[in-house]
Specification:
By secondary structure, the protein is α+β, with helices and mostly antiparallel strands. The protein contains five helices and 16 strands. It has one domain: 2,3-Dihydroxybiphenyl 1,2-Dioxygenase, domain 1. The strands form two sheets. An eight-stranded mixed β-sheet has the order 2-3-4-1-13-16-15-14. Bound molecules: zinc ion. The site of zinc ion has 5 residues, from strand 1 and strand 13.
Length: 317
């Protein structure tokens, strides 16, 4: 059987300052499910939290590392994924605008590629968008009290801001096998696999945009999805043949990952759909307990003593 190519977005990972404020915003206000509570595998003194739909399905996942105390603030700019863009039911934007404004989040509304989009910022200044999408059969998480008529259904597109768009587009349409959907001014939309919401990448040409720097308040990387390990290994080989520096496969417990930078410097990852978040706790209890990777389990008591307490998400009207 031929290996599968990239099927869409797997997750987006960003860096925030304060875990509690982040949980309140993404799980409380936006109503995503906290699907995994773990630590940064490379620095177990800091949380790594995952949000998504009920199961944490690929394409629904946003994850955060925490660099507290404004230690290193990043700057959003070229060479980064520059927004978290969610899909929501087509008639839900008034609900979202009211909910956000009632909770002191200022919102603007724009039209793009024929879609209506609400645009705002999270507590760290990371741009967040909610796009009204007619064709998206994914089910949002309703466990946070937001009905299925309004619940966010997952990521819609990946917004990639670059100085030299043709370099990123060449990679997307070449080794990564995306197809151009449409182009409007500086923005071009591509799609992977069967296409549709959750499988898009928007390349925004910003030839004069300041180059972004990493740190809290920025998106760290975007991960693309492949079904399994054989598909990932095939992509790793193709990327190497195209002279990209690709990492070895890394075991992230919930998926396996390879990393590489596209030519404008955006960190890309390719992650497997398997094994998923129910590998170390029951699907009904995702995110309830602190889960540690096996290598850090012997230090659990010490890690628990260092991590700041994390209360359940605030409820919002
Ligand atoms: Zn990742």
């Amino acid at each position: 059987m031929n290996p599968s190519s990239i099927t869409g977005i797997h997750h987006v990972t960003a860096i925030a300052d304060d875990p509690q404020g982040n949980v309140d915003f993404y799980a409380g206000l936006l109503g995503l499910r906290l699907v995994k509570r773990t630590v940064n595998f490379d620095d177990p003194s800091a949380y790594h939290l995952y949000y998504g739909d009920a199961a944490g399905s690929p394409g629904s996942i946003v994850t955060f590392f925490y660099w507290p105390g404004h230690a290193v603030r990043g700057r959003i700019g070229a060479g980064q994924t520059t927004a978290l863009v969610f899909s929501a039911p087509v008639d839900s934007l008034d609900f979202w605008r009211d909910r956000l404004e009632r909770n002191a989040v200022s919102v603007s509304r724009v039209s793009r590629f024929g879609e209506e989009v609400l645009s705002f910022s999270d507590p760290d200044g990371i741009p967040v968008e909610i796009t009204a999408v007619a064709e998206d059969r994914r089910q949002g998480w309703t466990g946070a009290g937001i009905s299925a008529a309004h619940a966010l259904r997952g990521l819609h597109t990946a917004e990639l801001t670059v100085r030299y768009a043709e370099l990123t587009e060449f990679l997307l349409t070449g080794v990564m096998e995306f197809r151009l959907v449409r182009r409007d001014g500086a923005r071009a939309r591509f799609e992977a696999g069967p296409g549709g919401s959750g499988r898009y990448a928007d390349v925004i040409a910003g030839p004069d945009a300041p180059v972004g720097t990493g740190g809290s308040g920025t998106i760290h990387h975007i991960a693309w999805s492949v079904p399994g390990d054989a598909d990932q290994l095939a992509k790793q080989q193709e990327l190497k043949s195209a002279a990209y520096q690709v990492s070895p496969v890394m075991d992230r417990d919930y998926f396996h990952s390879i990393y590489y930078r596209e030519r404008n410097g955006i960190l890309f990852e390719i992650a497997t759909e398997t094994p998923g978040f129910a590998v170390d706790e029951p699907a009904a209890e995702l995110g309830a307990a602190l889960k540690l990777p096996v290598m850090h389990e012997p230090a659990r008591r010490r890690i628990e003593a260092i991590l700041p307490p994390l209360a359940p998400a605030r409820t919002y009207a």
